[in-house]
Amino acid sequence: MADIESASLQFAVMGSPVAHSKSPRIHTLFAHQFKHRIEYTAIEVDPGGFAQALAQFRAAGGRGLNVTVPFKLDAFRLADHLSDRAKLAGAVNTIRFEPDGTVFGDNTDGAGLVHDLTKNLEVAIKDKKVLVLGAGGAVRGVLAPLLKHHPALLVIANRTVSKGKELAEEFAHFGRIEACGFNELKGKRFDIVINGTAASLKGEVPPLPENLFANHALAYDMMYGDKATPFMDWAALHGAERIADGLGMLVEQAAESYLVWHGVRPETKSVIAALRKGG
């Protein structure tokens, strides 16, 4: 019995690709704060192989999973029970294996973004004009948490306008939300501009007008890397007063996952600082 109690609890992140995931390092740093014994690994999963990988990890004694692209929709479908925020997001990034054998699915992405904005960056969302670029899964997951902070207006800008308008209609009961194409942004200015497109991965920037940023505006890219993203570089040249990448969001969504699994929320600022230093 003592051996069982002293064994490390098993957790992992599944996705493709995940070789360079920072999640194992993040959760190891979290566990040190509470002296929890965990083992957290990154598992590369082949396309179409998520259900099998999940079942194998669970059978081997796994307690929980983080799920990243491209398997968040698969995780959503495989969960027996869903949190309210997972239902709204239509995707799952956190799985907890329950003692009764069921699978609980949650989504911590939106909470992670809002926590990074309001706590780490000390940006008030209330009464601000917020622009979100993109209308994919990453954006869908953050709309309700942003709107619950009562911005004056939230605009979704997307290449395919109909996709953005579908999201705006779906989330309209949470607050004032509109959608438009990138070409319709000319003449409009925003306090917070969040890039939720995959353009940065391709070294590109969405086609944005030059005078997009209001005074004291924040430009935020949900992507992160060792250097500034193309969107961050563009924002610096076009009037954004503050610029941030998504590393804080990554750590904050991880902290929310840790809370789902362990019942305690880790301190995050020291972990973000350690990752910035390459630690």
TrEMBL record:
Gene Ontology biological process terms in this record: amino acid biosynthetic process; aromatic amino acid family biosynthetic process; chorismate biosynthetic process; shikimate metabolic process
EC number: 1.1.1.25
Binding site for shikimate: 21-23, 68, 93, 109, 224, 253
Residues annotated as transmembrane: none
A Pfam family: Shikimate_dh_N
GO molecular function annotations of the record: NADP binding; shikimate 3-dehydrogenase (NADP+) activity
Residues annotated as binding NADP(+): 84, 134-138, 158-163, 222, 246
Keywords, comma-separated and alphabetical: Amino-acid biosynthesis, Aromatic amino acid biosynthesis, NADP, Oxidoreductase
HAMAP family xref list: Shikimate_DH_AroE
Family membership noted in the UniProt record: Belongs to the shikimate dehydrogenase family.
Protein name: Shikimate dehydrogenase (NADP(+))
Gene: aroE
